[in-house]
């Protein structure tokens, strides 16, 4: 039933890129909704790309610790608000289904799954139920990423499918990852609104934060602050301690007069002193940007802007403490 789509030439299997995965802790009924890449590994098996520290990733460790298989439900064609909520950087105590219901101004109708102890929204186009052997993994193979390289090739949990239900003529939404800016950049832009709201509570001295579409998913942010004595290195460290900014790779501290937009951010970045830029050397953005395959390579203007700055920052910026 599922579409056999290969997005980029070196991919070895078909992927589902907007799959909402439902999981739960072993001893509670509270469900987590996450947006994870799903690979089609066989007629009855799927791979799940779960990032360490993600909701389903934490649940997997809990099920592994008690030696039991983990139930999951995979929604294809979920409500768009739920797809967004599953990818959003929400506070840990915020339930994705309640947040998406708030956005829609209406609640979801849930029904029990057939073969796993989970409940699914009845609005989904396809529901795939299955169990994860917490000790079994399969390499998902390469996947053409939004960072302009072939990522993936991770050892991923393997889902053995136990049931599948679908509406008549289901619609399966997918998003194409690749050279930025792409369509999934708008999810990142929407996520930035949530980051702004959370920062206003956690670090109120940060007065603005911006992320151009072309740098979406690279972990590059432009900020201003009301604290004239704050250093970019200190702010980088403090922001990285927040769960929703833990993957920040480059921080640019602006003057209050700097107004970053989609059209002028390159010029601003070129004139910013190196002492106002902090980057994580372990992220190796320079290598990532320099070694992009031809079909995945980003706009040459992006490379021309970022690569010279990365070279300067590597020699002049003070690495974050701690």
Order of helices and strands: EEEEEHEHHEEEEEEHEEHEHEHH
Mean pLDDT: 88
Largest sheet: 8 strands, antiparallel
Quickly give the structural class. Answer: alpha+beta
Helix count from the secondary structure assignment: 8
The outline comes out as: globular
Strand order of the largest sheet: 1-4-5-12-9-6-2-3
**DSSP summary, beta strand count:** 16
Estimated share of beta-strand residues: 25-35%
Share in helix: 25-40%
Task: Give the end-to-end Cα distance, rounded to a whole number of Å.
Answer: 50 Å
Instruction: Give start-end ranges of low-pLDDT stretches.
Output: 314-322
Give the radius of gyration. 21 Å
Characterise this structure.
This protein has helices at 55-65, 80-87, 96-104, 185-202, 232-240, 265-271, 285-290, 300-316; strands at 15-16, 20-24, 31-35, 37-42, 45-49, 70-76, 110-112, 119-121, 126-139, 142-144, 150-152, 155-166, 206-210, 220-225, 250-253, 277-279. The chain is α+β, with helices and mostly antiparallel strands. It has an eight-stranded antiparallel beta sheet. It has a four-stranded mixed beta sheet with strand order 13-14-15-16, sandwiched between helices. Helix 5 links the parallel strand 14 (220-225) and strand 15. Helix 2 (80-87) packs across helix 3 (96-104) and helix 6 packs parallel to helix 8. The longest helix is centred in the middle third of the chain and has 18 residues, at 185-202. It is globular. The model is unreliable at 314-322 (pLDDT under 50).
